[in-house]
What does this fold into?
Amino acid sequence: MKKLTTLVTIAVAGAVLLAAPMAHAYNLFNTTFTDPVGLTFGTYLTGAEGYGDTPNPADPGYGYNGNAKNGGDPFGGNANQRDWFWVQDQSGPFDAPALGLRFDLGGQANQVVVFPVIDHGPIGPESSEYNVWLSDDQINWTAATLTDIYTEGWSANPDIADGYTTVWKLAGTQTARYASITAGNNGNPNPNFFYDSFDNEIDAIAGLTARGTSVNPTPEPNTLILLGAGLLGMGALVSRRK
It folds into this structure.
């Protein structure tokens, strides 16, 4: 009887473990993403099959327009700044990185922070419709790994259309210059989430160093003062020699 009880206990425990959600390796923060000093957004290059803007980020209906930021050019300016103008990869979840939304990060990055926009609910699935790849030549691509999720996005409530902001990282100290954002869900934060439309809406992305700083950090005021003093000193020295 004791043996039977033990077997039943083991079976029940096993069933509970199987039914429990799988653990994830990323960090979950119920806050907004905080920009590092001098955050520089990536420059959109190519790959979009759709675009639009979100006129009211606080609208619970997630209303949007099919607008481009710079009028005549359908992709001119969209996804270059965090401004509610976005581009889409609509080709589906199995896109090769070369067919994704490609960006120049402006420097060698170990991490990429992605700022998506959602165009309809539910927030979870609509915030998790993309994968991130990095490359130095836009030919050979390496999949980045999701490390952080910020559930408040980048803009605090009542803005809700920014969904989740995510950070993706390469292994070790690897770096790359270019990023590709493809439709997919390797970063899906919940196993019950599902694809809704096999596309994504990306407002902006930015490259980060392995330490989480900007790839192009702005010099601090003290540094600028020292630099200015140095330039003045050099100017005075040149004047004396003349």
